[in-house]
Here is the input.
Amino acid sequence: MIEDETYLRAKQLEALTGIPEATWRWWAHVGYGPESFKMGPRRRVWKKSVVMAWIAEQEQTTARGGQAA
Here is the structure.
């Protein structure tokens, strides 16, 4: 059963994040960034929910400031 999910291509990710589509493709090639997969022989896609979770994780692990410990 396929869940109700939005699948994004690199160009759509560029529009969403401002990160160039070539960077998204490179990251997929080298195994960095959010998980992606090929849909068919050439079309690489990312699940929007996975991308948004990855962005939130990046924010949590790299954020500066906040309350002093």
